[in-house]
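Think of the structure tokens as a kind of shorthand, similar to the way a musician reads notation: each symbol stands for something richer, in this case the local conformation of the backbone. In the example below we present two proteins back to back. Begin with the first one, reading the sequence and then the tokens, and try to describe in your own words what changes along the chain.
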Amino acid sequence: MATSVRARPDGSPPPSAPPSSPGPRGRRAAPAGLRGALYRWDVTAAPYLFVAPFFLTFAAFGLFPLIYTGWLSLNRVELGGGARWKGLENYTDLATSEFFWNALLNTFTIGVISTVPQLLMALGLAHLLHYKLRGRGFFRVAVLAPYATSIAAATLVFAQLFNTDYGLINTFLDVVGIGPVDWEASRWPAQIAISTIVVWRWTGYNALIYLAAMQAVPRDLYEAAALDGASRWRQFLSVTIPSIRPTVLFTIVVSTIGATQLFGEPMLYGGSVGISGGSGNQFQTLSLLMYEKGWVTGALGQASALAWVMLLLLLIVGGGQALVSRHHRKKLGG
């Protein structure tokens, strides 16, 4: 039944009806004509315009070089020359090249002896900085200082420390009765020296990542473990490590990718023979071999094939990380 609208006692007209509410889901009706067309264009096209700069930049500097490098890997290309189709011959040449397998082995060994100590030390540092410590704000900034140091500056300093003739490391070894070590010409000493540079630069960075993950662990878990009589070491093993396992897995993958792409440290450490990884290729990595193939010998096709092999290795590492993460989520869900 319709209701009548009564006038106010003072004789003034009744208040006007409130404005109509927006349409479904709070969406206003689009105006008609030119304004309506502009309104619809703004609603539908503006979001794509906002994200377009990223996709254009990615297409120009990411996607196109990737596709072009894949095309070069199937051709014989010399610097300053044309391309001649070879199919998969560049890849089969790599499979039978002793230089490729030597570089792959060096990349693996340097990656292992740099990543494992680096992440273990980072865990320890993060555990110490997680608890109340006098001046811990200063230490948190100090552990990041090596990461902010230039690769060239750090490598040159460590090259002097590991110098065979007058380096501080050999001087210390001579004091304790160990003969001088050839830190450049020998395979394992050279790889240990390069790994030391990597460990020094990246330990603090990973420690801060672990520290951020540790600070997100609920305090209730530590209090419950303390009530059960668990020491700090037991709390670290039974509470901290399981809680930050995804972060640990992330740093392992990132460090592995960094080890696969290792370039600056071995090149600068070797000096005049840095590109070839020493006089006997004893510390030549995949990145150094790719650079040597492309810009020293001028075989851009082989260098491109090597780049795609490195991409395949990184995809395998990323796929392994995804499988482990999926298994961990299923385990937690079960």
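Once you have a description of the first chain, move to the second and do the same.
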Amino acid sequence: MIDEAVLEFSAGSLTLLNAILAVVMFSIAIDLLPKDFKALARAPKPLVVGLVSQFVVLPVLTFLLVLLVRPQASVALGLILVAACPGGNISNFITHRAGGNAALSVSMTAFATVGAILLTPLNIAFWGSLYGPSAEILRATEIDPVRIAVTVGLMLVLPLVLGVTLNARRPGVAARLRRPLQWLSMAIFVGFVAVALAANWAQFLAYAGGIAGLVVLHNALALSGGYGTAWLAGLTPFDRRAVTIETGIQNSGLGLVLIFGFFGGLGGMAVVAAFWGIWHAISGIALAAVMARTEAAR
């Protein structure tokens, strides 16, 4: 039973994953300046719409999907946890490739990362407790929201602050580091996930087939929810592309950290987050290729 399966992940590997995600976040942050946040403060509508899509619309759609499909407990909680995470670290790159508002995407990542300190544990606890089977896992698991908040803060928010500070005070250094660091951090992250999956390959193959279709459907729902929210809010096509991709590209790396750190590597959750990490990159790049065929009106 997938609810009883546990994927192996050493404490040292978890520490390494935390460090990799921190480097990824730092590489994104050195694209930001304090003035970028001030500009959004003057015209906050696209950012607000994007954050609502990320932290309200997607969790609601995920819960409705869970109620409709009725997956096993750990799979359901994995979907809910992924939906509760902030935008993924490749969303900015994909938005740029799609011809969308990359500045909005980077700012959404930054604000969602800060907001995740409170909203990620809150969404996991709230939506997970509403689905009976996953509520049983939450009751059996000692989850400290403060520990989750500290984990998110150290991995994501601290590198964000350091990156923005470096870009503001040493722009030349930030410019030299930006592109090599982004490519290097992504390559290390992909390699790390590949090695982690290889160590659990038999279990991953045993369960991934049954979960793959559900993850693909969930990701399509996330992208559609982002697009629909942005369209209903009257955002320009330029901003709409950023919100669509930011909602559909989730930080599954953070999801894995939380799963192994707080849920003991529970099989269904880990397979969902791992497959999400593979699939959202494929779907995002494919969607960007389609979007890039036409220029988005601003």
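Compare your description with these statements about the second chain. The mean pLDDT is 82.
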